[in-house]
Amino acid sequence: MNVNMEMKKQNTINAFLVLFVVHTAQMGIGVAGIQRVLYKEVQQDAWIVIILSGVITCLIVWIIGKTLSEYENHTLFDIHLDIYGKWLGKFVNLLIVLYLFSVFLSICLGYIEIVQAWMFEKMPSWLIGAFLIILTGKGVRSGFRPIVGVCFLAFLSAIWMLFIFFAEPLKFAEWHYLFPMFELTSTELYKGMIKTSYSLLGFELLYFIYPFVKEKEKAVRFAILGVIASIVILVILTVIAIGYFSGEQLERTIWATISMFKIVKLPFIERFEYIAIPVWMIIIIPNLLLYMWAASKGIKISFGYRQSYALYVFLLLSLVVFIFFNKRLHINMFIDYVGMIGLYVCYVYPIILYIAVRIKKSLQN
Amino acid sequence: MGNEKMDEIEKPIDVQEWTKGITHYTNNSPDLIIKHVERDKKGAVFLYLDNMINHQEFSMLLLNLDQMKVLKYEELEPLILTKKISYSSELLQTVDAINTGAVCLLMENETKCMLISLSKLVERPLSASENESMIFGPSITFSESISTNIALLRKNITDRNLCTEKFLVGERNSTEVRIVYIKDIANEDNIATMKQRIQDLKIDDPIDSNVLAQLLDDNSLSLFPQALTTELPDRVCYMLGKGKIAIFVDRSPSVIIAPSSFLNFFETTDDVYTRWNIGSFLRIVRFIAMMLSLLLTPAYVAALTYHYEIIPSPLLLSLGQSRASVPFPPVLEALILEFILELLRESGARLPTKVGQTMGIVGGIVIGQAAVDAGFTSNILIIIIALSALGTFTAPSYMMGAVIRIVRFPLIILAGLWGGIGLIFGLLYIIIHLLKLTSFGTPYLVPIYPFRFSDWKDSLFRVPPQYAGKRPETNRPIDIIRYSRTNAKQRKDIDE
């Protein structure tokens, strides 16, 4: 089955932009509170765990690149149709689309939670959700290139926040909290790596953007650079947080990154988290756009409906979810489940798929 | 069939009938003058509109005719050296020509009539720019006549690759439109797009180049202008040299420059005339001014309505004092004051210059001071609004300044309703919109996205001349090298 898409030139992007796509896709809600989760598992050695799982993530990205380079202009959906055949392929694609959509929902729900916890206790979930839905609708309708543009500009307009950590919380950091180093046991390491992997999800989007890259050979290289950028940021945030909070404090602080903004003091601005949380919308918007774009693209490729109709249906569905699904406990469970599924989709499945593709190719020869 | 047609063309025109016809189709215009000239029993008639032609030239022509006793078009033609001559055998075409200032000469036993273009130029003398003010550089502006404008451009650009292609736009009120570009710099795709769009236009009257620019837009629903218009010849030259295309429209002193990106609206030739470091500084000041005028008032509203925690306590104290007697919530206060400012600006634009100075008094003293004294608004908000108003006026393009002013209103309302979240939502919406927007097929936010770092030196800031040897890549120019970088500045060792 030849499903190679013809790429229009005005839709393709330069390879170096893959860096920003992958990086901004990985940065999201996870960054706001990864420190506590990790600290609970591996205490002061959290940063080692991040580096190790980063290495594994880079390996997986490399495998994804290998899989994709077997084909020319294929997204994951096309590869599925090719490998599993028409009906099974469509079914698997539907599962993937469901996964992408639930990641979209979980990011939205996570952000809504942060806004309600920190800024507007009484602001209804559906209202914050509606903001995100309007932006997603507007963005995805614009097409792929503007979406990548959003990733790029979001990176530029959010990265400055990192320097605030160097300016303020670093002054109060106690470095002896980081010692003794290398006290991990192997079970701790395993658990810690699983927890970190939640925050590194997002690189699987390479499966969907790959056909749109101009110089395909370089795409994987830049994707790996993107992952490295995310790991550097995670390590910085974690090390500063471990130094800034005491162990007990950190275990009780759900969003350590945002909490650290509280002490920033400039002549005309205090309580920086009130700026950081709105700006966090800029950080999650690339995620929302990319996931929603990939999900609606999947519907188009597998079932032939118009992508914009798929988009409207998804957005309407998510509005319904935001209106009726607002028990805190359920939401947290949902987010945990999505993370768990994401772990299998992003870390286990690419290996299986690569083997399947190899087998299929060797059979053809 | 074929024979008949041949007959029609060959048949000599009936002077009497044509005279009647022309009178009829010019709607019995009282200006139409019909002059019979008889020579050797052979009749000739001149028809023209009295107020449309240059009488001095016409009488010269008549004088010549008298001396030479000309009887045929062929003999007449060498006598009229400088004027455009055309022939027509169609009545309606002839009438159109007479309407635009031609003298029609009908002779018996001829198959067509002669049209001598003797139109009188109706124009004002070229004057200094009033709307786009500059500190350095030539101050002459375009006028309302396209032929003068093209002449002015030719004075500025002697490049033999300068092309000025002519089109007629408008079904009823057909207007001359020129697409101007430098052949080996401007990109052919852009030129083709432009021509296609102009040829596809179906309107009765383009009115003005600003109207034409709107008709050629990629997205007419957008707030943002997608083509720059300017009155300054040197700005047009500067843009043509960058590989852009200019559109001149008759009757309009402003020239369309396209494709224009968002950053082009913040460039002036002033930046180029000053030294590169000052030029860069001025540009950056303009961008900061734009950001301030967009964000300052909404941020004030958001902070005072919901997030007063972010304001340090000494500052909050003075803010609270100045707001103590204001009965409105910050949104309303800001909206009222912004609206008053818009009123001042708009009435200032409509007022005749003689009474314009009253605006300063009304705006400055009556509204500013009295509003605070009456407890209507706070001092600090007046400062903020004044700052953001100043910021919008730094945009060299009036259009872009107006857009920033308008965009501020929804941002203030969003900030008033939902604080920081609403404000960021509004900003992100604008950013996504700008990313989607194109100007004649070129992305609007270029060179920020699509990212072209080498073009930043031509839009965001300026660099010393030895590094500016290349034209911006954005317009995909054919000849990208302005001048050789190594020749521009020889490297020298110490003490050489």
What is the overall number of helices of chain B? 18
Helix-strand pattern of chain A:
HHHHHHHHHHHHHHHH
Whole-number tally of structural domains of chain A: 1
Rg of chain A, alpha carbons: 20 Å
- What's the number of structural domains of chain B? 4
**What's the end-to-end separation of chain B, in Å?**
87 Å
Assign a percent range to the helix content of chain B: 40-55%
Helix-strand category of chain A: mainly alpha
What is the helix/strand order of chain B? HHEEHHEHEEHEEHHEHEEHHHHHHHEEHH
Which ranges of chain B are low-confidence, i.e. pLDDT below 50, for 5 or more consecutive residues? 1-8
Which regions of chain A contain 5 or more consecutive residues with pLDDT less than 50? none
What percentage of the residues of chain A does DSSP assign to strands (E)?
A: under 5%
Largest interface: A-B, 37 and 28 residues
What does the average pLDDT of chain A come to? 89
Using only C-alpha atoms, the radius of gyration of chain B works out to 30 Å
CATH topology of chain A: Amino acid/polyamine transporter I
- Write down the overall mean pLDDT of chain B: 86
Summarize the structure.
By secondary structure, chain A is mainly alpha-helical. Chain A has helices at 17-26, 29-42, 46-69, 76-84, 86-118, 125-142, 144-158, 161-167, 186-200, 206-209, 216-244, 247-252, 256-261, 273-303, 307-324, 328-364. In chain A, helix 1 packs across helix 14 (273-303), helix 5 (86-118) packs antiparallel against helix 14 (273-303) and helix 7 runs antiparallel to helix 14.
Report on the structure:
The complex is a heterodimer of chains A (365) and B (496). By secondary structure, chain A is mostly helical. Chain A contains 16 helices and no strands. The model of chain A has no long low-confidence stretch (mean pLDDT 89). The termini of chain B are far apart. Chain A binds chain B through residues 14, 16-17, 115, 119-120, 123, 127-128, 131, 134-135, 138-139, 142-143, 145-146, 149-150, 152-153, 265, 267-272, 274-275, 277-279, 281-282, 285, and chain B through 306-307, 309-312, 315, 418-425, 428-429, 431-433, 435-436, 443, 445, 448-451.
